[in-house]
């Protein structure tokens, strides 16, 4: 599936929820069930220090795609990471670079991606793009 | 007894809803809300007397200058400074601290020591570190105990003839602990060290008496005490302010300028280069008048009741731990729930209309001491109520259920 298709699928899933509590409960579930990053990748190099929560992000190229794994010490942050990983992992570098995260607004989680939240997610998206940029440059 | 509902009606922001819920504002440690009288005074300044100060001979300039200087003397009397010229207008506590550390750059020598406490806000750590880097002085840290209290024996052991400055907050922003500053100042003076008190968190709760404390510097912000943002005060003893070099060069701070040499203005103007925040400075005086009209005894009584109620109600939640359990405390409760990240609780209770601060509160060394990523901090003001605390406690319980 393309990034856009996955994002539309997520928007569809979230449209079933009536209020913020249901959305948050779902995010918390996602945070709990997300496969963790391998312990060996939880290094300072992969750490994004937010003022509020920490995020670890690791990207690896397999064939022509990038696989991301990530983790956070806060469960809501981790749940949102799960959504971001679902959209951006296993995608081509070029597609990642062209994609945006506007769908986060549509699923009512905009505030978690604001810079003032300082939870590490804004930097995480930036780093996902940086990985894509680096792999893209390497491939060309 | 305070009529809390009457007081709340004076703060227009308190009647709004957030995320569809009535706002419960418990982030007073970050900044306080403003009463209508303060909001009106800002408009009144611009509508009626806006002009540059200490410059023009025209009537408006005179009116603005008078209002600014009246505000300075209000602050002087409020903190019981000996002279009005010991009261410097700043943009806030951070500005005041940097003014002092900048001045000490020409005084400290390699090997001199600066003592800070482990309870400090980053703004009372970093400027001193920068000063030490510049001068070769050594930074020493007063440790704290598990209750978040500074260990006085360790402090006294750190003091020596090498100690040139001691800097400590009056009240800790992250934990709410009230430090024994009067005692600490006396001990520092015994070895000839100067003392700066960071009063940012103290001035909303109490009226500092700088002569009784005998501190050399006392820095605070206006916005935490019902005043406008971008305002603050640095009190300095006359002798120290005369000794320190100016912080910034510019207009207003000079006596005479030639290309060969400039002589500096007398206090306080030597430290007030450029056009200041005139409206802010004047309205800070309005805020101080307002707080005095409420009365600090009343404020303290109300806040003590809120603190006691919050502490008791929160501790009924299983797995909840309060940080800063020392007995001398301002109305701040910093807490965590076992196994749950403070960010998660803060995000969920925000959805329920509760404004608290989460994170490290710009005091990372304290969080490192307790080995935690941060806390949830509820800081109360006299305009808060027990009913609001009950709403917060319910919200925290709900968040806990969702997150467990």
Automatic annotation (TrEMBL), chain A:
Pfam families: SufE (PF02657). SUPFAM superfamilies: SufE/NifU. InterPro entries: Fe-S_metab-assoc_dom. Gene3D superfamilies: 3.90.1010.10. Residues 12-130 form the Fe-S metabolism associated domain. Belongs to the SufE family. This is SufE family protein.
Automatic annotation (TrEMBL), chain B:
InterPro entries: Aminotrans_V_dom (IPR000192), Aminotrans_V_PyrdxlP_BS (IPR020578), Cys_dSase_SufS (IPR010970), PyrdxlP-dep_Trfase (IPR015424), PyrdxlP-dep_Trfase_major (IPR015421), PyrdxlP-dep_Trfase_small (IPR015422). Gene3D superfamilies: Aspartate Aminotransferase, domain 1, Type I PLP-dependent aspartate aminotransferase-like (Major domain). The keyword Cytoplasm does not apply. Residues 24-391 form the Aminotransferase class V domain. Its EC number is 2.8.1.7. Its cofactor is pyridoxal 5'-phosphate. One of its GO terms (molecular function) is cysteine desulfurase activity. It catalyses: (sulfur carrier)-H + L-cysteine = (sulfur carrier)-SH + L-alanine. The keyword Transferase applies. Keywords: Pyridoxal phosphate, Transferase. GO terms for biological process: cysteine metabolic process. It holds the Pfam family Aminotran_5. It comes from the Bacteria. Catalyzes the removal of elemental sulfur and selenium atoms from L-cysteine, L-cystine, L-selenocysteine, and L-selenocystine to produce L-alanine. Belongs to the class-V pyridoxal-phosphate-dependent aminotransferase family. Csd subfamily. This is Cysteine desulfurase. The lineage of its organism: Bacteria, Pseudomonadati, Bacteroidota, Flavobacteriia, Flavobacteriales.
